[in-house]
């Protein structure tokens, strides 16, 4: 993982600087909200992937920041609206923006970041980049909506679950990879290979996220343990647990989750059972398949530092603990 | 106004059909919200302007719907978020969407319409269109934000007021006109002339809107009379009234508006005084100047039905009573 670490250490400051400058230039009413969500960390995976695919394709110019960072801002915009609509209290260990700045500022900051992301992608006069970004924004919006709709009618349907994690997470990561390739003037086949890597990586990333939600204490993830369960979100660890269990008990649990009537005691008990049954680990095992598929997509790119880092990034998704 | 009427009667059905089909294709959770806001009428000024400028430039293809309607959807997205954040009760005479469908559905429908608008503009593979749309989205978001910020610190500053109506209304109308010209492959000068027409028309449009708010009964506008005053929005009729009045009284009124402490009796009294002082009409007189400027921008376009209709559309902005 040495190359991965070195690459991030070298490139992250430039990306963060660019993000900070764009947030600083926003209107006063929403500037602090934007700085709060951007400054709260995040792994900057999306901008790094855009950069890495551009470099893997031999792109040597230094004007990649706007398109790379647009994906991060789009992701931040989604978090702002999501956390507000979910009544979330924490984000990356800090108070959620709407609790600090109020609903008006938070909703409008989300709108402004979405608009800014889109405008940043349009700066290149490259119609393909615009199209990729427009589609990424659309797919992410639909993914958000599907997730909320699913949480109102939770089921154990794995296909529905997969569609949701693809929509809310993997499509945007696919978009980040495609944008890097498109910036470098990739052929459709090369762009598709980059997109395929991103899609599989994104699925693995979200699977691990959902596993961590059941397995990792708040102090590491910055989110309350078992948060998905409490919020009524059915994710793979719970699906795996309930597939092995009693059907009637599952229906009762889904009903309680849907109506928000799960008590703290019931939550703690289910959490322990899901952990004891090894379901977080089994979720990680699923993620490992997608990581392998992602890595296979790199075969057509010329060897070198970017492709090495992309391979290590895929492995890192699997080993991260927060 | 015969040509204007005939043109709208001929083209509106196609535009409405396209908008309905796009709304129908949205995700189930937000579809009805989108249909509610799109189906609640609106004058379709933005799509018509895009079409008219494309036709004025000799564009004879029939693939204009996506870009023309994208501006209408963008406008609808703004209304959804605005009405929710303003706690508005009515929109075009119907209950505001958030009161019918709830906050989650309404916020997400706004996000989805914004994303869809953007995606529709990107369908042409035309980088200039993408850029215009991206900038229009950004300027509209900033305009919304400025308006809300201004309402928290209302002043009698006419420059601030003008910036707000430009941001929240005129820039998007400018964008609609520019997109029509750009679709037809306009030179930068031609696109600028179309944009200048739109900017001036948009300013006139909003000035008349603000005059109507003080002068027109709910039954015609579908909005409560004096709504801006009640919501603490300082607009030109009030600025003109207070510029002629007592400074201390103005400060007191601004304070009450800011704190939302204006009583129904005070509102009714101020409304009557603003009307008696002829301030709605003086606001319309201002609008007339902008209409003239808009019409002057048409000089460079070849005469014909589209340019005739654009001239009549400018006059119509001034004479409308709702």
From TrEMBL, chains A, B:
GO terms for molecular function: metal ion binding; prenyltransferase activity. GO terms for biological process: isoprenoid biosynthetic process. Belongs to the FPP/GGPP synthase family. Keywords: Magnesium, Metal-binding, Transferase. It comes from the Bacteria. Its cofactor is Mg(2+). Gene3D superfamilies: Farnesyl Diphosphate Synthase. It holds the Pfam family polyprenyl_synt. The keyword Metal-binding applies. It comes from Pseudodesulfovibrio aespoeensis (strain ATCC 700646 / DSM 10631 / Aspo-2) (Desulfovibrio aespoeensis). This is Polyprenyl synthetase.
């Amino acid at each position: 993982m040495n190359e991965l670490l070195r690459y991030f250490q070298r490139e992250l400051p430039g990306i963060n600087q660019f993000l900070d400058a764009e947030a600083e230039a926003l209107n006063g009413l929403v500037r602090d909200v934007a700085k709060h969500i951007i400054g709260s960390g995040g792994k900057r995976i999306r901008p790094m992937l855009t950069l890495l695919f551009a470099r893997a394709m031999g792109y040597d110019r230094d004007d990649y920041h706007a398109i790379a960072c647009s994906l991060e801002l789009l992701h931040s915009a989604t978090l702002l609206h999501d956390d507000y609509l979910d009544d979330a209290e924490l984000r990356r260990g800090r108070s959620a923006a709407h609790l600090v700045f109020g609903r008006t500022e938070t909703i409008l900051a989300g709108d402004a970041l979405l608009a800014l992301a889109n405008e940043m992608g349009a700066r290149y006069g490259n119609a393909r980049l615009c199209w990729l970004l427009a589609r990424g924004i659309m797919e992410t919006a639909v993914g958000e909506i599907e997730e909320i709709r699913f949480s109102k009618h939770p089921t154990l349907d794995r296909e529905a679950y997969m569609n949701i994690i693809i929509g809310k997470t993997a499509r945007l990561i696919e978009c980040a990879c495609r944008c890097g390739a498109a910036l470098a003037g990739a052929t459709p086949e090369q762009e598709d290979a980059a997109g395929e890597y991103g899609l599989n990586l994104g699925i693995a990333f979200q699977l691990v996220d959902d596993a961590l939600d059941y397995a990792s204490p708040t102090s590491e993830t910055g989110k309350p343990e078992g948060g998905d369960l409490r919020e009524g979100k059915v994710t793979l660890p719970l699906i795996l647990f309930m597939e092995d269990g009693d059907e009637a008990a599952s229906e009762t649990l889904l009903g309680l989750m849907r109506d928000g009537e799960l008590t703290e005691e019931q939550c703690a008990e289910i959490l322990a059972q899901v952990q004891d049954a090894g379901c977080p680990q089994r979720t990680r095992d699923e993620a490992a398949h997608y990581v392998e598929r992602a890595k296979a997509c790199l075969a057509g790119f010329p060897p070198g530092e970017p492709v090495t880092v992309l391979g290590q990034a895929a492995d890192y998704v699997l080993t991260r603990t927060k």
